[in-house]
Amino acid sequence: MSGSRSGAFAQLVGAALMVAGPVMLYRARDGRSEIRGELEAQKITFPDHGLPAHLAHYSGQPVRTGPQAHAYADMIKDHIAKATGGRTYAQVTEELHATGGDDEKLTKLRQTAFMGETLRASLLSAYQAWEITTLVAGLGTALTGVGAAMVATARQARRS
Questions:
Q1: Residue 7: which pLDDT band, with cuts at 50, 70 and 90?
Q2: From CA 142, how far away is CA 129, in angstroms rounded?
Q3: Which one of 63, 74, 86, 123 has the fewest beta carbons within 10 angstroms of its own beta carbon?
Q4: CB distance 11 to 151 below 8 Å
């Protein structure tokens, strides 16, 4: 490729990256807004008291962000472990089946474990989506910067 053709190509690629970057930033912002809206619609709030020390700063706050969803999921994990004696839904189910499925206490415990683990999984999904929006925003910023540098370098090379 000749110098002017390679410069034109670099300028074209740079311009494309300068378009793609802001699109990614917009999508990241839009995704984050959707996650926040879904979390707010659930009306989940940290308790005012009784939180473990590492979660105390969330006391009384509504869950609106990915990190808050992750923290709440950790709290649920602790509550499930306490309620089930450290057993998982699968382990409680296995115990229930071993009794012939007629143990009312194990049936209720299995339901508690299932509901807790389901809510926990949902909150962890929100956290993972939040983290993906962070990645997309970072990539959008990087693409915009690389694109601008490519355009500037190509223009400078053309002038030389």
A1: confident
A2: 20
A3: 86
A4: yes
- Is residue 113's pLDDT more than 80? yes
Is 45 strand, coil or helix?
Answer: strand
* Assigned token pair, 19: 């378009």
Contacts of residue 7, defined as CB under 8 A and 6 or more positions apart, other chains included, come to 154, 157, 158
What's the rounded Cα separation, in Å, for the pair 112 and 83?
A: 8
pLDDT digits (tens, 9 = 90+) for 122-136: 999 999 999 999 999
Q: Taking a C-beta distance cutoff of 8 angstroms, is the pair 96, 110 a contact?
A: yes
Classified as helix, coil or strand, 60 is: coil
Q: Give the tokens for residue 73.
A: 């999921």
DSSP state of 62: B
Among 112, 132, 129, residue whose Cα is nearest residue 38: 129
Token pair belonging to 49: 């008291």
CA distance 2 to 160: 14
Cα→Cα distances 71→91, 142, 148, Å:
24, 29, 38
Distances (CA, A) of 22 to 26, 27, 70, 75: 6, 9, 28, 37
Burial of 99 (0-12, 13-18, 19+ CB in 10 A): exposed
